[in-house]
Write a structure and sequence with these properties.
Helix content: 25-40%
Distance between the termini: 95 Å
Shape: globular
Radius of gyration: 21 Å
Oligomer: single chain
Strand content: 25-35%
C-alpha cells in the first residue's frame, strides 16, 4: 500500500504598503507559505507604495499577483491569512471583511482609527472563527523580552512607575499623514507601541488617561501632530507616562529611539539603545540579555484559543491609544489663572 502524505500549503495575501508588513516576510519565506497576491486599500491608495512593495517582494523571491481591489482579491484568492497595512483609516474595514470570511488577520496598528470602528472590529473578532493579531512587534525585541523575564522573576519587586519615550525621524511622509481624515495621529501610530509594552511588561491594565498633542512646527505636514505626551492611571495605582515625537535628527544612527524605565520597589529596569539594564541594591548594575522572537511566526503557531489573549490585547491597547488621542483633541488646558 502506498501512503501519500498530503501537504497543505498556506496562502497569504497583503493589503496596502503603509506599515510593517515586513514583520511577516521571514516566516512566510521559511515556511514556504504561498505569497499569492497584493492590493491597494479601500481608497485606491498606496499606488506608489504598492509598486515599491512589489519590487521589494520580488527581491525576496516572492511574485504575488497585483489586484486593484482588495475585496476582489480576498474573494478570488480565498487566502488563509491576510496581512493588512494600508492607510491606517482602512485597517478596521479590511480586517472586519476578512474576519467575516474566516480569514486570519495580521493587522497594522492601530487596528482601528476611531472608537466606533473599533467596536465593530471587536464584535467581528469575537464572531469569527479566524485568528486576529496586531503588529505590536516591540514585544519581540531581545531587550524587551529580557525585561519581561526580569519582571516575572521579581527582580525589581512591585512596579510603581513607568515612563517611556518614542521618537522617530520625520522624513518625507506620504500625503495621507497630512489629513486627520486619513491619518490617525501620533498617539495611535507612534505612542501606541509604548502603550502596549507598558501593559505587557507590568501585567497591569489601564484605567484612565490624560494627554496632549501638537501639530506646531510640523514642517508643512498639514494636520499631522508631531509631538505628544500622555499620562495613564493603571490598576494597583501604577503610573505610566509616554512621550512621542517625530523630530529625531536625520543624522541619528537609527530611525527610532525606544526607551522605557520601570521603577519597582526593589530596583529599576531601563531599556535604551536596544539594551536592558537592571539597577538594584541587591544586584548592582546588570546588563540583561534575551532572545528576540518572531511575532508572525508565533501568530501562525497559535490555536484559535491561544490567540484570544493576543487579539484582546490588540483591541484594548488600541482603545486606550484612541482614548488618549481623543482626549488630546478635546481637552482645554488650564492657563494658570484662578477664578478668585
Amino acid at each position: 500500500t502506498n501512503i501519500i502524505n498530503e501537504v497543505t500549503t498556506m496562502k497569504a495575501v497583503q493589503i496596502g504598503a503603509a506599515g510593517h508588513a515586513m514583520y511577516a516576510y521571514n516566516a512566510i519565506k521559511s515556511r514556504s507559505i504561498e505569497f499569492a497576491a497584493i492590493s491597494c486599500g479601500s481608497h485606491g491608495n498606496d499606488a506608489e507604495g504598492i509598486a515599491g512593495a512589489l519590487a521589494g517582494l520580488e527581491k525576496r523571491g516572492f511574485s504575488p499577483k497585483l489586484y486593484d481591489d482588495w475585496r476582489d482579491m480576498l474573494d478570488r484568492e480565498q487566502p488563509d491569512i491576510v496581512i493588512i497595512n494600508p492607510w491606517f483609516c482602512d485597517n478596521a474595514d479590511c480586517a472586519v471583511y476578512a474576519l467575516e470570511h474566516n480569514i486570519d488577520v495580521f493587522c497594522e496598528k492601530p487596528v482601528a482609527d476611531t472608537l466606533e470602528r473599533l467596536e465593530v472590529l471587536e464584535a467581528a473578532v469575537k464572531a469569527s472563527g479566524a485568528k486576529f493579531a496586531g503588529m505590536f512587534g516591540t514585544r519581540n525585541e531581545a531587550s524587551f523580552r529580557a525585561a519581561k523575564r526580569a519582571v516575572e522573576d521579581g527582580r525589581i519587586g512591585e512596579i510603581r512607575l513607568m515612563d517611556s519615550r518614542k521618537s522617530y525621524k520625520l522624513g518625507a511622509r506620504p500625503d495621507f499623514y497630512k489629513s486627520r481624515e486619513t491619518y490617525c495621529g501620533i498617539i495611535p501610530w507612534v505612542a501606541i507601541h509604548a502603550i502596549d509594552w507598558m501593559a505587557w511588561l507590568s501585567g497591569e491594565r489601564y484605567v484612565g488617561v490624560a494627554s496632549i498633542h501638537s501639530s506646531r512646527a510640523n514642517f508643512g505636514n498639514g494636520d499631522m501632530d508631531i509631538t505628544a505626551a500622555a499620562m495613564f492611571a493603571m490598576t494597583n495605582d501604577v503610573i505610566a507616562t509616554v512621550t512621542a515625537d517625530m523630530l529625531r535628527p536625520s543624522v541619528a544612527k537609527s530611525h527610532g529611539d525606544d526607551r522605557v524605565r520601570l521603577v519597582g520597589t526593589k530596583g529599576v529596569l531601563e531599556i535604551r539603545d536596544n539594551v536592558c539594564e537592571l539597577i538594584s541594591d541587591a544586584e548592582g548594575y546588570v546588563t540583561l540579555t534575551g532572545e528576540s522572537g518572531d511575532i508572525f511566526a508565533e501568530f501562525l503557531d497559535m490555536s484559535r484559543d491561544e490567540n484570544a489573549a493576543l487579539s484582546a490585547d490588540a483591541i484594548e491597547i488600541t482603545r486606550w491609544a484612541l482614548l488618549a488621542r481623543d482626549y488630546a483633541e478635546k481637552q482645554n488646558l488650564w492657563n494658570g489663572e484662578t477664578n478668585e
